[in-house]
Amino acid sequence: MLKNIYMTSVDDIISKLLFNSRFVCTSRKIRALCTATKLTFMKQPMLLRLQAPINVVGDIHGQFSDLLRVFELAGFPPDTNFLFLGDFVDRGPQSLQVITLLFALKTRYPENVYLLRGNHESLSVNHRYGFYGECKLRYGNHRGHRIWKAFNRAFDCLPIAAVIDNNIFCIHGGLSPRLRRIDQIDKIKRPTRVPKSGIMCDFLWADPCPDIQGWRKNEHRNVSYEFGPDCVIDFLNKFGFRLVVRAHQAVDS
After folding, report:
1. What is the CATH number of the domain that holds 91?
2. In whole angstroms, what is the distance from residue 140 CA to residue 145 CA?
3. Catalytic pick from 120, 127, 220, 248?
4. Is this prediction's pTM over 0.85?
C-alpha cells in the first residue's frame, strides 16, 4: 500500500513537470524523492550491464526544454530505454526541473532509465556552477540548502560506468591509467564523494587528446589526465570492447 501511495506521488511529479509550465513541487516531496532514488541507485551496481536497444544521452546541464525534446524524438519510458551520461545540473537555468524529472523517472522505471555520474554531480562543483544558487533562489536559503544537500546525497550513490551488450563502454569523462581489472569499478564503495585522484576521478574528468600518445596531466582542467588514441585502443583490446562512448565536452559539428 505504501509503495502504491509513493508511486502515485512520483507519477504526480512526472505529470506536473511534463504538463505544467511552472515548476511546482514541495521541498518535502523533493527530499523524499531524493531518498527513494538514492535507494534505487544502491540496488544496482557501480558498473551497469545493459542491453540494446537503449538511447545514450550526453550532458543536459539544466536545459529542461532539451530534455523534453529528447523524449519527444526518442520516445518516453518505459516504452523507450535511456542511459544518461551525467552532468544533469549547473550552467543551464532549469537544473531542478531536469534532475527532479530524471530522478522521478529513475524511481518509477528503474529498469528503463539509467543515470551515470558526471563531474557536476559533485557537491564542490555544483555549489559553484549554478545548482546551489538555483535551489536557494526557488526555495529560499534554508529549504534550498536542504534540497541541494538531499540531491548531493543521492549523487554520491550514482553509478559511474555502463557496458552495453558487452561491447560498448560508457562513461561521462574518460579512461583511467589506474584501471587494471574491470571489477575494480564495482569495488568502489558508495556513497562516496568524488576523489581528487583515482579511477572514479578519471572516469568523471579525463579527456581524450588526438595529438598525444599515452597519458599526460590534464592542464586544462587541473585534474586527472588527457589520453591519446593509443590508450583507447589498448583499453578496447584489453577488455574486449568495441567502442567507448563518453560526454563531458562540446564537439563542433
Report:
1. 3.60.21.10
2. 8
3. 120
4. yes
